[in-house]
Amino acid sequence: MSMGNVKIMQQNLTYLSKDFSCSWCSEHSRSVADYEETCELNGNKSPEFDGIDECCKYIGFGSSMGEPSGLSLECEVEVQANFAILNEKGMIEESELRRATEEMLRSVSICEPDHEDGNLMSDCNANLIKFTLDNARRKEEGRLEMPLLWNEKSCHLLGRNFNLAKAVLRSNTRKLQRNKENLELMNETFKEQEKLGIIERIPNLERYMDEHPECSFLAHMGVFRLDRETTKCRVVFLSNVCEPSRSSVMTVNHNQAMYAGPSLNQKITSAMLHLRFGSKLLILDIKKAFNQIALSELDQQKLLFLWYKNVKKGDFSIIAYKNFRLPFGLRCSPTILMLALFKILVLDSKNDNPRLRNAKWIMYQLFYMDNGGFTCESSETLNWIYEILQGIFGPYKFELQQMFSNDSTIQDKIDGENMQSDVGCKKSEMEVKLLEMIWNRRSDTISTRKVCLDEKANTKREILRSIVSNYDVFNINGPLLNRARLFMQDLQCERTLGWDAQLRDFQQKEWKNIANQVNSAPIFELQRCVGERTDEYKLEAYVDASKRVYGVVVYLCNIRSGERSFVLAKNRLIGSKLHEKSIPSLELQAICLGTEVLLDTYNELGGTQCLVPIKIVDLGLFSDSFVALSWLNSFSHKFDKMQKRSVFVMNKLNHITKLCEGRSVGFSFVSGMDNPADKIT
User: Is the overall model pTM greater than 0.90, yes or no?
Assistant: First the structure.
């Protein structure tokens, strides 16, 4: 009977040497020591592509299953929300309009792939990829024209939405007239887009609608970020709303009329991890990324929108525009953007020399939506990349902006060119945003924003909002926030305490002490660079469990240099289902979590879907529970001795061995004093 590739390291379970150390542990050890008087913390070879089918296999969707004549695919029905923002009198329901806008911002701005969705590996998505790449073409000026992913089974039901678009426009105008600055910003956005050829005014709207009975309008909202240096106003098209049609039994919105397509974005943790290889780093941003992709005439007809004739002169006569380029707000826009980058950097690099092709593949692997980068080991290579960037993206009419580097020579060039083009008049800041983290270019360290809790929060809702507002993709500050999360869990257990009911005095006092401790803690910084991209590495996961928390901490060990770098941490609060379990059972639960995280991290760094994979030669998991490890050992080699164990234990052991079937993992013992996962639990 096969038990997977579970390896119990040596017969007597090896110990980790006591010289284990890392900056993450050291920082949190100091933090605990400083504040424990007031609060106790509860505590590889690159792939070759031969046609679109091979591209589908790389991206992760198997064979494309032949040549699709269109997009009438056999897919599972996707249920999409349709917000009813018009009431029976044809008036706007403001609350529904706000919900529709928030939903569009959430679904398009946050494009994390759902790695638990088996449909991602379906033939349907492979066909969508093949259809898009087969029908992508370059226009005379070089710009990419990409097809929208209309669903032929439902797109004929697409509503015209003219009255809806007009009603939303009138509603928004009443709000914008209270803030003339925002109204002017939105008007300038449209005028700039018209000048750049992103949109085009329709001369005679009534005639156009008669000649194109299948045309459809999109309502839109303006989202304003006046603190930003670049895009202060972003127009979001509400593709999740439609108006009922009098002549049709049913109408659908734009989201319901098209496929979303597979999420080709890697997880933000994956993108950030790949940015940590290579001592030299250059990051960049694609200017108005969606708007750099052209649309066909047929697609343009279904993406019309309304605005005013001359806002500056007070002429609010309604006119119409059509989108020449891919707008922000369509559910398939993220997929189309990533496939456009795939074509530019991977498919069209087939005839490039090996050095340039490898550089393009690294760039594609480091892209997260419109945020990209390049890492290497020498200033010479980084300068070469910087000099050819325009030659890579320029022919496709992709404009780059917001470039930063930790190489002073390259940054001086960037600053000089920015000053000449009036992009900026001062030298770039040393601390810049790097995929929701802060990158100090001088020290080459990464950190989160300073953790902050609201001391004045006095309801469950306010406390939860305060905790989750601290975005930390790698859980660097996990040990610091443990007490806050446990406090929130205790509040949740009080069923008589409502979400907006005020806390009792002793609870408010305890929360204030927790918030004071967290707010007084320093910012934890990690070295960004963990080694060269060509080095060999070992992944190590350390797990631990207490009666209230179990978790895992993952490290990357550079075999050449011997350096160990913190990668990420994850922990879970123990709920009612696990509350009565013994410590060894909870330690086994931690081993289960650790195995999942370890293998997931391995696949992110060196899996088959990595164009330029990191060479991970060994996977190891360490626990300070002799009992849990002995269970695993007996289950792997002496199955007959495990028959008397509980169902919970047997299920977890079986799950661990199944996880290890694709890649062997070594399980070892580490003493509790040397276990870094103790900090997370």
Answer: no
